[in-house]
Each structure stands twice: as C-alpha cells, then as structure tokens.
Amino acid sequence: MLVFDPRDPSVLRELDDTISLLRRLTHDLELIRAQGYPDAWHLNEAPILNSWSPEIRPAVCLAGLSSGHPMLPGSARPIVTSEVWLIAPQEGWARTLSRFYRLGKPASGGPDQ
C-alpha cells in the first residue's frame, strides 16, 4: 500500500514504479491469455525456485461499514476490502485492487485519531 501525497516527489516515484510493475504484469497476463502459456524467452530468463510451496502473506486491506457498494448492497454493511494499493486519508479516498472508496470517519484508533 502506498500512502499518496501528490506534494511528495518520492511518493510520485514510487507510484511510477508501481504503475510500471502493473503494466508488465498486465502485458504478461495478456500474452499468456493469447498463447495459453508464457513464451520461451520469459521462461529462459526466469530464475529457478526449488523446494517451493504456496504460502499466504498478509496484505493491507480496509475494514469498515460500507454504503453504496455496487456488489454488497445495504447501508452501514460490514465489509473487508480487497488489497489496498493507494490511500490518501487526508484527501478522503482509497484505491483497492477492485475499486475506489471514499473514506468517511475512521474507526477510533485509526489514522487521524
């Protein structure tokens, strides 16, 4: 998660790096979708990972009471968002993997408390 402040040049550089990373991922996914598998160049250049296993690591998300969600109807409905990619608490918004959220009042003990 990147805390966004458009006045901070280091945040803008990090945002540029994230955009580049996501563009490369999108390109590779589109390639695999079109061909059904990654091309030989990508695999020949890839490192080898031995003794691998699937693992789970935590990702930052937001939990709160949602109103006006397109997939989760209701008012003040408890939800947990998808992974947060960008958050601007001072400006009152967050971008998760799936959508934007307008940030209302934080929970006690949360940011700005």
Which descriptors would you attach to this protein?
29% helix, 19% strand, alpha+beta
Describe the protein.
It is a single chain. The protein is an alpha+beta fold. It has one domain (2-102). It is 29% helix and 19% strand. The chain contains two helices and six strands. It has helices at residues 9-35, 40-45; strands spanning 2-3, 63-66, 77-80, 84-88, 93-96, 100-102. It has a four-stranded mixed sheet with strand order 1-4-5-6, covered by helices on one side. Strands 2-3 form a two-stranded antiparallel ribbon. The radius of gyration is 18 Å and the shape is extended.
* Cα shape: extended
Report on the biggest sheet.
4 strands, mixed
What integer is the average pLDDT? 88
What is the strand arrangement across the widest sheet?
Answer: 1-4-5-6
SSE series: EHHEEEEE
Give the helix level as a range of percent. 25-40%
Weakly predicted, low-confidence segments: none
Secondary structure class reads alpha+beta
Number of strands: 6
Roughly how many Å is the radius of gyration?
18 Å
How large is the count of helical segments? 2
Cα(first) to Cα(last) distance is 20 Å
- Percent of residues in beta strands: 15-25%
The figure for the number of domains is: 1
